Amino acid sequence: MKILIVIDQYDNLSNGTTISAKRFVDGLRKDGNEVQILSTGKDEEDKVSLKTYKFPKIIDKYFKANEMVFARPDEEVMRNVFKNQDVIHFYMPFRLAKKGVKIAEEMNIPHTTAFHVQPENITYTMGLGTHHHLNDTIYTYFRNYFNRFRHIHCPSNFIANRLKEHGYTAKLHVISNGVGEEFKYNRKEKPEELKDKTVITMVGRYAPEKRQDVLIDAIKKSKYENKIQLILAGKGLCYEQYEKQGENLTNKPILKFYPKDELVDLLSYTDIYVHSADAEIEAISCLEAIACGNVPIISNSNESATVQFAMDEDSLFEHGNSDDLARKIDYFLDNPKILEEKRKAYSEFANKFRIENSVKLMEEMFREEIEDYKKLEIK
Is residue 220 domain-shared with residue 262, that is, in the same domain? Predict the structure, then answer.
């Protein structure tokens, strides 16, 4: 198949959606498909770049802190790259995709999309994440775009169910964003400076809905506080808040972005992985940690799909409750044998979410859309 991936940013390796897109592109190419990219950033082989929008300083500061980039649609460029594609897959429900789907319809090219932007990603940043009516309004607003498609990629059953509840009419394909082969069970020794520490890790953007603040508070309340080294792998808007919040810990939290190779090493010597987010469409970072043999402790939030990765109640805590999270951390540190016994089981559990499986399912979705389009042409 000749496949075009349309995504606002493709060069940013700290953005989860970008990382997922790159994995799918690599997998699709390995399967013999011809894949092109339409995005922003540098022009490369099989990648066509568009200019970005410029915003007023106050808005631009927010977008830069969250590493968000929005492509400026260029109809001439888009029509030229759309030609001869078998199918076009749109990633984000913003201006580039809204313009792109109109052009695809006019050019009679099969097209699919994905749901990667949870309303809570927007409302938590505004301090309104728990206002369900506002989140419902955003689902409804997005629906005008998504209901133009016949097929939508949903990274989890959780988000597929949310779309059904909000009147989305397309066929919903539940396909994990996929764990890369580099994330696997290969436990390693800690670096010298961490040998006498218990390493607790969370990976993710420093954003309000990720709730790293709950994890920092839980460490303060743990009876093992003086032995714990908390590592928050990521970057984002809440960096200064978390740095200040962690100042009183015996071992100040390490806040930094880890490139892939370093992240794999980190997850291979982490003692406990925590995912405290209130809102997640999937949380591939949690899956990567599990694949490396980490036993997770996950927020049981009703707005998070990550709950699906907990194999039992020991790996769940009451969302937003740092006392309960501290109890769960202490339970595993009190029972190192139980922790060790569960590592292998979690690593094996993650195998069903491997990227090669997800690529096959994406190909099936693309073929189904192409066939649906042929039926429309016959009519």
Answer: yes
